[in-house]
Specification:
The chain contains eight helices and no strands. The chain is mostly helical.
């Protein structure tokens, strides 16, 4: 069991972490989700079919991300009146950046913010496809949706993301 778990953990931990990081945008939350998923993998490693492990892991990761979003929403409601220390630190740290690096950082932040504003399941599907480069079949299996539904949601999600970014950059240019 131990060897199988280690092999599976090595194979999927980066994928889970990347998905959680893009979904939650905080390293600590992504690490927590990854740890939770690996614990569940440890508990179920012997009972999982080899062909379905990837989809199972991503389904568990998606559920853990949703739970983390719920916890964060509750926490942010409590702390709504406080200053965002992370944002303040980024602003101070970004003061000495070159124009090119600053623009690249702004673009990355705009994409991440636009992704965060996308509703589920669009966000998850885009992250799995565009960032993690999962196949349509893998996404369909992990999301427990028909393949054609995944393709439609991906198309719509990309369009929403494009519109969100276009609106953001048109507003900034004005």
């Amino acid at each position: 069991m131990r060897d199988r778990f280690h092999k599976l953990a090595q194979a999927y931990r980066d994928r889970v972490y990347t998905y959680a990081l893009y979904s939650l945008r905080r390293r600590e939350d992504a690490e927590d989700v990854t740890q939770d998923v690996l614990i569940k993998l440890w508990e179920h490693a012997d009972s999982l079919q080899e062909a379905r492990v990837g989809a199972w892991v991503m389904r568990v990761a998606r559920n853990a991300v949703i739970d983390a979003h719920r916890r964060r929403r509750t926490r942010s409601e409590i702390l709504a009146e406080t200053v965002d220390a992370e944002e303040a630190a980024r602003t101070v740290a970004g003061g000495g950046a070159t124009d090119g690096r600053a623009r690249a950082r702004e673009a990355r932040e705009a994409i991440e913010a636009a992704l965060e504003r996308l509703a589920e399941p669009y966000r998850s599907i885009i992250v799995m496809r565009e960032i993690q480069e999962m196949s349509y079949g893998e996404i369909a299996e992990s999301m427990e949706m028909p393949l054609n539904t995944i393709k439609v949601y991906l198309h719509r999600g990309r369009a929403m993301l494009r519109a969100e970014l276009q609106e953001r950059f048109e507003t900034d240019a004005a």
